[in-house]
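Dear support,

Our group has been running a series of protein-ligand predictions, and this particular one with acetyl coenzyme *A is the one our PI (initials K.S.) wants archived with full inputs and outputs. We had some confusion internally about which version of the output was final, so please treat the block below as the authoritative record. The input we submitted was:
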Amino acid sequence: MILRPAEFQPWSHGGSHVPETITITDDRTGKTVTVPIEGGVFPSSALRELDPSLYMYDPAYLSTAATQSQITYLDGTNGVLRYRGYPIEQLAEHSTYLEVAYLLVNGELPTAAELTTWTDDVTHHTFIHENMRKRFVDGFHYDAHPMGMFVSAVAALGTFYDGAKDIEDPAARKHQTLRLIAKSPTIAAMCYRFSVGLPFNQPDNDLSYAANFLNMMWKIGDYEVDPALERAMDILFILHADHEQNCGTTAMRVIGSSHADPYSSAAGAASALYGPRHGGANEAVIRMLTEIGSIENVPAFVESVKKGEGRLMGFGHRVYKNYDPRATIIKKAAYDVFEVTGKSPLLDIALKLEETALEDPYFVDRKLYPNVDFYSGLIYQALKFPVEMFTVLFAIPRMSGWLAHWEELLDEGQKISRPRQWYTGADERDYTPIANR
Ligand code: ACO
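Confirmed final output from the archive:
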């Protein structure tokens, strides 16, 4: 919608009235449009008003808001993260992952009765069809990467449910959402147990979401989940549940916009998460810390990063240009875990690396701070997860965020995602016979 100047509501700025608008002039024609700025955003359709053949060039969406959303608020400059308005710090302190998942997919915190029903529903959807394990998972090579298995298993799961493609029906959508959130830990644990040749543990309905996952992962003979580790796992799940329009969530929305079923869309989102610049970074952090080997090697490593010989994994973020608030909470959780498990030998290297980088103008000038992945890998390692499982641990809780965005996209009836391109290839030319090339 393009508003004309007279219709604009002026806003007060320090006593003076400044219209919250932007005016764009096409210097080729002298044509002008003025459009409102709302929440720091203006509709790019203004450009098309000037000239329908004009497009904005914005590779990697550096300055494009691809959607409106009511799920997660993120202020990268001030290090703020809120789910549905609730600060991440409060959720991490007072809530549980299942309550947060409910909040994300339904928009409000549950009442006590709603939480009981939701917990019961999730708990009773944790089992997976036997053929998923016997016919599907058993087909993987013995040393398959668990994240590769997870991605494929999520897509395959959709083929077990008739209603998976019934995305126009809100009740069917809710059912798939419940299944995906409930079965993600089961799939994750199954992929791990297969990759190390251990028999699969069935879900235990008497346990919490986090404890059930840890039990499926580790139970051999007698095993009891330590409550401190169960809580740490749950906090990690809360912190990873959503992060607005990141690479994986954007993949979910783009695929979902074609009306693919949620299992296929979530498998695409998980594939995006798999990359080392996204959810794969925590795995890369541990490899990096192991490679550095000792505190004495930290300065030389930092120098090599500055020379462009690699990146400091777990540092930097597309949106946070200040400390990632999740990293602060995770750093504290790491110490709580180390109380039970003993300190990770890599912790001192991580602390030295953080200290060195935060004092170095290269990182300061580029506003590169530790992100969520810098310390999460150390916790996962202390909990005895192999590095190959780290991204899977991220994918389990992110499932609720992906599904919340998928639901929002369908509710709003968004069109199919279809960006345009700036063609810079060859002009028309005649086919050259192979003998003449
Ligand atoms: N180490 C060293 N230099 C870095 C780093 C890093 N981790 N991150 C960015 N830079 C530098 C770049 O080289 C670039 O420098 P230049 O301006 O001299 O060319 C500048 O900082 C800007 O970097 P971009 O790549 O343009 O920043 P972008 O916003 O595209 O990238 C990203 C963000 C991908 C997260 C990046 O910081 C990175 O690769 N970090 C390491 C991987 C990582 O930890 N990823 C996890 C992110 S959190 C998550 O996905 C859950």
